[in-house]
Automatic annotation (TrEMBL):
PANTHER family (alphabetical): EXOCYST COMPLEX COMPONENT 6 (PTHR12702:SF2), SEC15 (PTHR12702)
A cellular component annotation (GO) from this entry: exocyst
Record-annotated Exocyst complex subunit EXOC6/Sec15 C-terminal domain positions: 45-393
Protein name (record): Exocyst complex component 6-like
Family: Belongs to the SEC15 family.
A Pfam family assignment: Sec15_C
Domain of life of the organism encoding this protein: Eukaryota
UniProt keyword annotations, A-Z: Exocytosis, Transport
Phylogenetic lineage: Eukaryota, Metazoa, Chordata, Craniata, Vertebrata
InterPro entries: EXOC6/Sec15 (IPR007225), EXOC6/Sec15_C (IPR046361), EXOC6/Sec15_C_dom1 (IPR042045), EXOC6PINT-1/Sec15/Tip20_C_dom2 (IPR042044)
GO biological process, one term: intracellular protein transport
Length: 436
């Protein structure tokens, strides 16, 4: 018997073709049945078959990894167009899709998933058939065969398909539109898992309610892939925002604003608006999270630009120009680019910038200092260190350019006022650092 084991140990490292492994299994079964007919014990031969079965499943998984990869590479990540009733039936006969609203629509129409979804579903069923082939003639109960099928299908879903999906999501050519389609696709594949359960049950006639029945873990595979795709959407959106921000070209010493928002900012807003229109097919919370994440990232990026340590001087005109751009951000947030936000939730992403700019535009230091620390303060979101950093940048320009026209008559008093505010802000900052 050791000779059989050694032969298989040698063979399995080279055999990557499931059909060859299947042929080997069939030969061993015929040999075992013949020996058993002559009264010889064949238990060890069947033990060898179980070892070969594991190898057979491994070769199947490798083969289907290539199949899945090719399906994903050839997909166009667009909803499936159906021109006629025949085309519609051709899809729903391969994949369990039911949507009363879409069924009512006249032809031509589009199904929400892309072409890879029915193809993947069909291939999972083909894998189950291929896995079943090994169990034939092994003299095993249908309960054991059911368990084997479910376990091998779980490996296909949680290891092979999951790995292919994760690799797909990380590919550089997969953009925002494709990621949105992948999220929609995984939602439909997740919903189809119960039909795969039924498919195995119909083959084995083993009730899924049986105590020892293994469940399919496809739900976790598709949820994980969806979460990964969502994460990629958030990071890709932020990357695009960064690309637009890099195009910003402020004249930080300008005497007055241009009277209209900056070109780069309007281009960025237009990009976000068109992007979120694509998100209308996404689950509500994903679209909302992406929108909130983008607004927060934009707000943080603008604040960092204003407080950049490399930026030494800012004129009041530049602050006014910056304010016009932030107003456009607020208008975008209030236009409900994605439905489902309560009240001004999205606008609050820009609240830190708004309060900081209001403080400087109105030059409302007496109110800020008097109300500091009060929960009802008009400038509650303005940190003293932030206010100080910006005021230091403006202090230098006011000395050089005398751009505060309202203070021209008593510029000396103005300088004293700035020095006084700077001292008070420093004392607040020092107080904060001592408390922390």
């Amino acid at each position: 018997m050791d000779a059989y084991g050694n032969l298989w140990a040698f063979d399995k490292s080279y055999c990557s073709d499931p059909d060859l492994v299947l042929e080997l299994k069939n030969l061993i079964v015929i040999f075992a049945d013949t020996l058993q007919g002559y009264g010889y014990p064949v238990n060890r031969l069947f033990d060898l078959l179980f070892e070969i079965r594991d190898q057979y499943n491994e070769t199947l998984l490798k083969k289907w990894a290539l199949v899945f990869r090719e399906i994903f590479e050839l997909d166009n990540y667009s909803p499936i167009p159906v021109e006629t009733e025949e085309e519609y039936k051709s899809v729903v006969n391969r994949f369990p899709f039911h949507d009363a609203e879409i069924e009512k629509q006249a032809f031509p129409k589009k199904l929400p998933m892309s072409q890879s979804v029915p193809q993947i579903y069909v291939q999972v069923k083909e894998f189950i058939y291929a896995s079943l082939k090994f169990s034939e003639s092994l003299h095993r109960s249908w309960t054991e065969i059911d368990d084997m099928l479910r376990k091998s299908t779980n490996l296909l879903l949680t290891r092979t398909l999951s790995g292919c999906l994760q690799n797909l999501i990380k590919k550089p050519h997969i953009g925002l539109t494709e990621l949105v389609q992948i999220i929609i696709n995984t939602t439909h594949l997740e919903q189809a898992c119960k039909y795969l359960e039924d498919f195995i049950t119909n083959i084995t006639n083993v009730s899924p309610e049986t105590v020892h029945t293994t469940r399919l873990y496809g739900l976790s595979t598709f949820k994980d892939a969806r979460h990964a795709a969502e994460g990629e959407i958030y990071s890709k959106l932020n990357q695009k925002i960064d690309e637009f921000i890099q195009l910003a070209d402020y004249d930080w010493g300008m005497p007055e604003s241009d009277g209209q928002a900056s070109g780069y900012l309007m281009d960025l807003i237009n990009f976000l608006r068109s992007t979120f229109q694509v998100f209308t097919h996404l689950p509500g919370k994903v679209a909302q999270t992406a929108c909130m994440s983008a607004c927060k990232h934009l707000s943080t990026s603008l604040m960092q630009m204003l407080l950049d340590s490399e930026l030494k001087q800012i004129s009041m005109g530049a602050v006014q120009q910056f304010n016009l751009d932030v107003i456009q951000c607020e208008l975008f947030a209030s236009s409900e680019p994605v439905p489902g936000f309560q009240g001004d939730t999205l606008q609050l992403a820009f609240i830190d910038l708004r309060q900081l700019l209001d403080l400087f535009m109105v030059w409302d230091w007496s109110t800020y200092l008097a109300d500091y620390g009060q929960p009802t303060s008009k400038y509650l979101r303005v940190n003293p260190s932030t206010a100080l950093a910006l005021l230091e940048k403006m202090k230098d320009t006011s000395k050089k350019n005398n751009i505060f026209s309202q203070f021209r008559k008593n510029d000396r008093d103005k300088q004293k006022l700035i020095e006084t505010v700077v001292k008070q802000l420093r004392s607040l900052v020092n107080g904060m650092s001592q408390h922390s």
